[in-house]
From TrEMBL:
Keyword Transferase part of the UniProt annotation: yes
Organism: Streptomyces subrutilus
Keyword Magnesium: yes
Name used for this protein in its record: Shikimate kinase
Signal peptide: none
Location(s) in or outside the cell: Cytoplasm
Lineage, broadest ranks: Bacteria, Bacillati, Actinomycetota, Actinomycetes, Kitasatosporales
Length: 160
């Protein structure tokens, strides 16, 4: 959360001249409800199933850049959908995470004690990010434009 997947994903799509999608935005559009409301009212397993469906739909129909939610890798089915694709893990340290996401209610998983919650989440997720990712790109002390360039370099892609 807050590593810049949505921001950098959109920039990257622009640089590559391809469409951009975001699984969170696709879920909100399909459900007509905000992510935080789905999480709180329906629970995380329900949200992860919606997310798996959104990723499956995008993987089947979308040619371009797809930004995922930070917890998408927790679902085994979603990880399976990502197998063999050029997945990018955008990393950052905890202080950068708190600066970027802060106490925003839009990200319910970091709402109470962001530093501790972020560390716990990352201990559980880091192995999964590493498992699905083709490349890892550090985002600390880089602008979104610099991160997008680093992704192009890491994947050996040329812009338009
Ligand atoms: N490289 C960056 N440097 C500084 N701020 C950034 C960077 N990338 C994203 N941000 C900011 O951090 C916040 C979270 O970005 P976002 O793209 O929504 O992350 P994600 O989709 O990974 O949760 C936004 O306010 C965004 O403007
Ligand atoms: O890390 C997570 O579990 C989540 C990350 C969010 O997306 P971003 O990573 O784009 O903030 C969003 O999918 C939801 O709040 C859950
Ligand atoms: Mg996002």
């Amino acid at each position: 959360m807050g590593s810049g997947k949505s921001t950098v994903g959109a920039l990257l799509a622009e640089r590559l001249g391809v469409p951009y999608r975001d699984s969170d935005a696709d879920i909100v559009a399909a459900q007509g409800r905000e992510i935080a409301d789905l999480f709180v009212d329906e629970g995380e397993p329900y949200f992860r199933a919606l997310e798996r469906e959104a990723v499956a739909a995008a993987v089947a129909a979308h040619t371009g850049v797809l930004a995922l939610g930070g917890g998408a890798v927790l679902d085994e089915g979603t990880r399976g959908l990502l197998a063999g694709l050029p997945v990018v893990y955008l990393s950052m340290d905890v202080e950068e995470a708190v600066r970027r996401v802060g106490l925003g209610a839009a990200r319910p998983l970091l709402a109470v004690n962001p530093r501790r919650q972020w560390r716990e989440l990352m201990d559980a997720r880091r192995p999964l990010y590493t498992e699905v990712a083709r490349v890892v790109v550090a985002t600390d002390d880089r602008t979104p434009e610099e991160v997008a360039q680093a992704v192009l370099d890491a994947l050996e892609l040329k812009d338009v």
